[in-house]
Amino acid sequence: MMKVMIIEDDLVIASSLQEELMRWQYEAFHVTDFNDVMNTFAQEAPQLVLIDIKLPYFNGYYWCTEIRKISQVPIIFVSSQSDRMDIVMAIQMGADDFISKPFDLTVALAKIQALLRRTYDFTGNDVYLSYQQVYLKTNELKVQYQDQEVELTKNEIKILEVLFLQKGAYVSREAIMMKLWENDSFIDDNTLAVNINRLRKKLAEINVTSFIVTKKGYGYGLQKDDHDEID
């Protein structure tokens, strides 16, 4: 089930979007702590974000920029500030689409579904992330290459999900560790390295080698070419 995060301080609009998405079998939730959006994002790991421009504490442009530092998850702005410059600014900050208020729920849902289709691979009722013919089955805790599969732990799935969503860009160690933050238990750098090494060994079991690459002093990414450095 795809998860949608709604960052909207108008409870009527947030609830309407949540109810409509849930009616169409999406898992939807809206933010309640607008001063702690990134921890909520890291813990919930949504597949799509809906965000208003005018928000308490920091505006939507700020949070869009913060999300883009750690993820390429699709983002749609939903706002009454919808003149040309607002839309241009949203796209420049990393948004994928813009819905102007007031809006029709049917039209909003169609835009959300279209963006999800463009971003993710759908096979039957399952949703996979894919990169270079490697498929990440998040719901099944598995990764597949050709006709081979291997089971992963929840942390290994979360690490790969971050890397898949970046589409080949490097992700900082701090961003990955934020993703792994659960139940007030912080994953430190040594633990992350152990998880990465175990993940590489599991990928090698299905003949996926040199897939996770290291940018020294920064973090990890997925292999783009022969010049990537392996640690």
Structural write-up:
Strands 2-1-3-4-5 form a 5-stranded parallel beta sheet, with helices on both faces. A 5-stranded antiparallel beta sheet has the order 6-7-8-9-10. It has helices spanning 11-23, 37-44, 60-70, 84-92, 105-119, 154-165, 173-179, 189-205, and strands at 3-7, 27-30, 48-51, 75-79, 97-100, 121-123, 126-131, 134-137, 142-145, 148-151, 171-172, 212-215, 219-222. The protein has 8 helices and 13 strands. It is an alpha/beta fold and 231 residues long. It folds into 2 domains: 3-121, Rossmann fold (3-Layer(aba) Sandwich), CATH 3.40.50; 128-222, Arc Repressor Mutant, subunit A (Orthogonal Bundle). Residues 3-116 form the Response regulatory domain.
Short description:
40% of the residues lie in helices and 23% in strands. The protein has 8 helices and 13 strands. A hairpin with a 2-residue loop joins strand 6 and strand 7.
Keyword list:
231 residues, alpha/beta, Rossmann fold, Arc Repressor Mutant, subunit A, 2 domains, five-stranded parallel β-sheet, five-stranded antiparallel β-sheet, 8 helices, 40% helix, disordered C terminus, transcription regulation, WH-like_DNA-bd_sf, DNA-binding, transcription cis-regulatory region binding
Any idea what the radius of gyration is? 18 Å
Q: What string, H for helix and E for strand, traces the elements in order?
A: EHEHEHEHEHEEEEEHEHHEE
β content, as a range? 15-25%
Separation, N- and C-terminal Cα atoms:
35 Å
- What's the helix count? 8
Strand order in space, largest sheet: 2-1-3-4-5
Number of strands: 13
Top CATH class of the largest domain: Alpha Beta
Based on the coordinates given, report the CATH architecture of the largest domain: 3-Layer(aba) Sandwich
**How is the main sheet built?**
5 strands, parallel
Integer average pLDDT: 84
The third-level CATH topology of the largest domain is Rossmann fold
Helix/strand/pairing class, anyone? Answer: alpha/beta
Shape: globular
- List the domain count as a whole number: 2
What is the CATH H-level superfamily of the largest domain?
Answer: Response regulator
